């Protein structure tokens, strides 16, 4: 339940999807709502406080809705929030698609709550050679209107003043005129106030946008773009790790740590916990910051560019035909791609999918076979130096598993997928400031949530290892690890730690001197093994505790099953 | 081309303009501009039986062929006068 629900001065920020509500929200509140150039980025409400002079104003960023006749769970959230009422509505209109924005505005104004309209993206409207008589329009509807270009922060200061004015000054609380919300009225208003100044041919950027979403040359370009992205993520990641971070830690930081620790401790358990086998002053720095962080940085730079340019929906359109053949729809690529960063935003993004069947399928695919960027970084550390071929094999296995699992889930879950209807937003050049901000946010989140968790787990492992408890637990797993997976018994450590975080199912394998087959088996087991604790909690919250339990049990069973089979196949070939 | 039998958007040639006669009930079609009387242009038809990409008043929308089959259109006379 929203924290601010019963507060006075509650302001709802509403509008169609991908209009820039979150950009406005972030600017007004100083918070960080997720932003991208496709519909359905905001799938849940987010609350923030604006303090203006002496008043606190509570602003709520509501998920976008094309209309109030909700078509997915994210839109239903918006309808529910509106039905609970507010002191003021800020309705963001898409100047670029004014007619349908007016329809939504009329629907929302029927609630009879004071309102400010925000006409955003007027730059795109002007670019097309149109103008909209905003003042006269607002006059007819008896509302206030502010023209903005949110990504460039144009008009936002004026909007902030207007919001506080409407909240604070009693006589400003005039009610909007009631006009029946119908397409006829929306079309009439749009025709009355929207004027074409000049007819402009498509510019280069728009032409490129069209090319990227037609099969030719869109498909070869998509392959090229994905290859470049992959090369950037892996190349920059490996480069940073190899030439910057590892030399920094191993050359400068670790010798100092060794020196200090040996100065203050004698040989024994305490020293080993700090700098021994799982010494958390060493592994606790090296694993999260030298091995995983570079990939977090390179992946989110690439993903932010994809998101903000508007390329993701184009990819969805190109892939829809192929995806249909395995029981998915093109739009599913967005949560899946987000899942390659982290499963949690990926699963959250499934709320924008049209059917429950699609939601469950995509969430299960992400949990089972999509490695998050932390795990991918760990897999590259483990495999790339040993053999590039093994690394590609692991990713091939991941792709095949996604395809296989998608087909099986399509056949076994009742119901049909909703055929694709997707808006293709204009192709935009990402704002460097926005990209930097997004990457910085992701890094901050990785350090506060991911890296810290990893350090705790490593500290616990160091303690349990030195006390001999890890070995005891390992003995329980011994039969299955030695006789079924054909791995050394110490490989039980990653399986225990892997429940906490996905990359910890991989990293302890680094120094075990495994042969190629064992590396491959270890990597495959880690790939399919339990998604981390946080993901299980997310699944329980989004779907049900039973669903999360099923995923937990299935991933354990499946990873061992498939690992054992690969172990036998592998040793046949050697 | 037999005009009378060819009313479905699905069968319309690429790059041709048409006027929408009928749109099936669907919560997303109307707000995306697919409404009776609107001019529609087919930009591309995707591979592997994928969706059609159409443009209405400068806005681009991908519509699965199953849905496009139920959208009825008629040729814009002016757009075809040149052929």
TrEMBL record, chain A:
Domain called FeoB-type G: residue spans: 8-169
InterPro entries: Fe2_transport_prot_B_C, FeoB_GTPase, G_FEOB_dom, Gate_dom, GTP-bd, P-loop_NTPase, Small_GTP-bd
GO molecular function terms attached to this record: ferrous iron transmembrane transporter activity; GTP binding
Transmembrane portions of the chain: 221-244, 256-275, 287-306, 326-348, 360-382, 388-409, 443-465, 517-539, 551-573
Record keywords: GTP-binding, Membrane, Nucleotide-binding, Transmembrane, Transmembrane helix
GO CC term (a single one): plasma membrane
SUPFAM superfamilies listed in its UniProt record: P-loop containing nucleoside triphosphate hydrolases (SSF52540)
Domain of life: Bacteria
Entry keyword Chaperone: no
NCBIfam families assigned: small_GTP (TIGR00231)
Name of protein: Ferrous iron transporter B
Organism: Halanaerobium polyolivorans
UniProtKB/TrEMBL annotation, chain B:
GO molecular function terms noted in the UniProt entry: transition metal ion binding
SMART domains found in the cross-reference section: FeoA (SM00899)
Keywords associated with the record: Iron
Lineage: superkingdom: Bacteria
Chain ranges of the Ferrous iron transporter FeoA-like domain: 7-75
UniProt cross-references to Pfam families, sorted A to Z: FeoA
Name of the protein this chain belongs to: Ferrous iron transport protein A
Species in which this protein is naturally found: Halanaerobium polyolivorans
